[in-house]
Design a protein that fits this description.
single chain, 230 residues, two-stranded antiparallel sheet, elongated
């Protein structure tokens, strides 16, 4: 039983696909980061007692959704899980903005996390798309708040609550950037290792006619291709 529990918490391994195992490890790390950080924020971040129910209806579904996505990752549905992580992040900040549609809401800057997560998990095109979508979402909320259609945020929110929210965003952004750099370093190391192996094989077998060497080309974050130079 304990073995099965430990396997569920761990990142899945796909013996037939090393790249899929690598992506699963990244998603597993991100999901557990969000589960732990959201839970800690929900429990320890300061908030007025009458606002606790609002926090509960925002954070609890988010944590449950992340746990469900963990199960998707374990089953190998990585692309679906990655897209849903970004979507649920956007939904979480959007629901938070419904309770205070202006820049006094601590969730106002949260869309930055959505964009960074899209860039790390998906690709740069997704990051651009989600950035445009998040900018429009924020603009709509401000307009609805100024028009009185949606309630504005309580300006009496304790300053420490804003500090806690900004701290969570900074820590999350730092984590995302570190994972991005780790992907780049890992891809370069793997490419260099493969390049060295091919060079050694070439020296053993002799240089073929028309062949001059092997090059490395980067195409996107963490993606490195090897090619032959004729």
């Amino acid at each position: 039983m304990f073995i099965h529990i430990r396997q569920w918490f761990s990142s899945p391994v796909f013996a037939e696909d090393e790249d899929k195992t690598r992506v699963a490890a990244l998603l597993n790390t991100i999901l557990w980061f969000f589960i732990v950080s959201a839970s800690l924020y929900g429990v320890f971040a300061p908030i007025a007692p009458e606002m606790m129910y609002r926090r509960a209806i925002i954070i609890i579904p988010f944590v449950v959704a992340m746990l469900a996505l963990k199960q998707l990752v374990n089953r190998g549905y990585l692309r679906l899980a990655g897209n849903l992580v970004v979507l649920f992040l956007w939904l979480t900040f959007t629901v938070s903005m419904l309770f205070g549609a202006d820049y006094h809401n601590p969730a106002y800057m949260g869309y930055l996390v959505v964009v960074m997560c899209a860039g790390l998990i998906l690709n740069w095109r997704s990051a651009v798309g989600w950035s445009v979508f998040s900018i429009l979402t924020n603009a709509i909320f401000i307009e609805l708040g100024q028009s009185g259609i949606l309630p504005q945020a309580d300006i009496a929110t304790p300053p420490f609550a804003f500090w806690a929210a900004q701290t969570a965003y900074i820590v999350t952004s730092t984590f995302m950037l570190s994972q991005t750099l780790h992907k780049i370093d890992e891809a370069r190391a793997n490419a260099q290792h493969e390049l060295n192996e091919r060079k050694r094989a070439t020296r053993r077998s002799g240089t073929r006619k028309g062949y001059q060497g092997i090059g490395i080309e980067e195409r996107g974050v963490g993606t490195v291709y090897l090619y032959c130079v004729a």
